[in-house]
Structure prediction request, 172 residues.
Amino acid sequence: MSHSKGNLSTEEVDYLLEAGVGPGQEHPANGSSQQVVTMRGDLEQIHLADIFQTLATAKMEGMLAVHNPIEHRQVFFKNGQVRILVSQRTTNRRIGQRLIAAGMIQGEDLRKALVQQRKSQQPLGSILVKNGFISADQLEEILAQQIEEELYGLFTWEHGEFEFYRGPISDP
Prediction:
């Protein structure tokens, strides 16, 4: 395989695209029989940047599952866009911390919104906007920063494994 800092060769790309395909390998998130493991490997042998480059070059649509013993991430590829799935608990905690750190809300406003969120089960950001604590543009800005950091943080992983499930996806 390639060195973790270099680009994948054509042979390596072909090997990865063929190596993961096997009968009965289903997408773990939705169990769809249309999605099989198209690519799989170890992050110690293949750098995540190489995986992203391979997927972008091949213009693939699907879901990349990256995991290590502590964390698990799902990255969705569709129409040239990349989205990362972050747990709701992590999202709520970080949005509140970010908004307070940016001076956009006070701690008491966040507490009120979190109490309301627990009762209504609505997204925290929606509650903050609906109650006038922040604007929709401010929420969008904070969410974009968070998503970028989550995605960039994924590129720091040196240990773990990945699987790519090629095919139409439903982005949760």
Summary: The longest strand covers residues 36-42.
